[in-house]
Amino acid sequence: KKKKKPRMSQAAENTSPNSGSAEGEKSLQEAFLEFRKRRQAEIKHAAALRTQRQNDPQLMEALRAKFLEKALSYRGIPYHRRYHGPESPHYDAPLYLDCCGLIRQVLRDLRVDFGFEVGPWNQAYQFDTLPLDLEKPENMKPGDLVFISGDYFDTTKKPQIHNMVHVEIWMGDGMKTLGARWQKGVVEIHDSYTFEAKSYGNLKYYFRSIDTWLQGQCESHCSEHPWKSKHAALPQKGSIFAMDSDEEAQEGDDS
User: Fold this and answer.
1) Which of 12-21, 70-79, 130-139, 156-165 has the lowest average pLDDT?
2) Sheet holding 187-190: strands in order across?
3) Shortest CA distance to 254 belongs to which of 115, 127, 73?
4) How far apart are CA 167 and CA 160, in angstroms?
5) Is the pLDDT at 193 greater than 70, yes or no?
6) What are the residues whose beta carbons fall under 8 Å from the beta carbon of 107, sequence distance 6 or more?
7) What is residue 57's predicted lDDT score, i.e. its pLDDT?
8) CA distance 144 to 172
């Protein structure tokens, strides 16, 4: 006669590999659904804020002030890591920010307020996402950006797109700007947006409004450089983060 296999105890059944796997899958699925729900709520909130700002200039100006305040909070942060060796007081600092890195960091800090995820590229990308040309300093508001194009003295160095080599934030006090300008320096306030660079010349200045960012729009307006990214202000219809049909209908005609 064949011996009967001993029956597993209830405790053993509950701790069997299959049971644990099922519980693990369930908890993982629950965690994902909670994350999806939070992300949808965040997207919905961002869309509502964009709509409000587009209809209320005061809200746009409040976000402009918040952008400038956050940028000022990074004063003293050193430039790129590679310029600060063991002899530097900023060696092994917890954070480094170059010119475009400062602006990217602030936009990421305030991504819920702005309603978009800024792309990972440099000042040329930021330039292409701001189509409003203010033409001269007199038209600038605090928080707007000064872009600088130039030619590298080192002709073996690959030129930047649009030859865009630098960007700083307009402060609105005379010609003062905030930015990370010097390789061995820090984020600081400068008395003027004009300066003599060590690595590039033939400088040209471009004065751009951040109003489109304040309205929740961050996309390239350059036909040659679309700067495609997986980051988007709102998910596409087929995205797992897209609103359910009943929620989406409440969003209105936000574009």
Assistant:
1) 12-21
2) 187-190, 177-180, 164-170, 145-152, 200-208
3) 115
4) 13
5) yes
6) 114, 118, 213, 218
7) 87
8) 9
d(CA 30, CA 62): 38
3-state DSSP of the chain = CCCCCCCCCHHHHHCCHHHHHHHHHHHHHHHHHHHHHHHHHHHHHHHHHHHHHHHCHHHHHHHHHHHHHHHHCCCCCECCHHHCCCCCCCCCCCCCCCHHHHHHHHHHHCHHHHCCCCCCCCHHHHHHCCCCECCCHHHCCCCCEEEEEEEECCCCCCCCHHHEEEEEEECCCCCCEEEECCCCCEEEEECCCCCCCCCEEEEEEEEECCHHHHCCCCCCCCCCCCCCCCCCCCCCCCCCCCCCHHHHHHHCCCC
Residue 228 to residue 220: CA distance in whole angstroms: 8
User: Position 175: which residue type?
Assistant: M
For 164, the token pair is: 């865009």
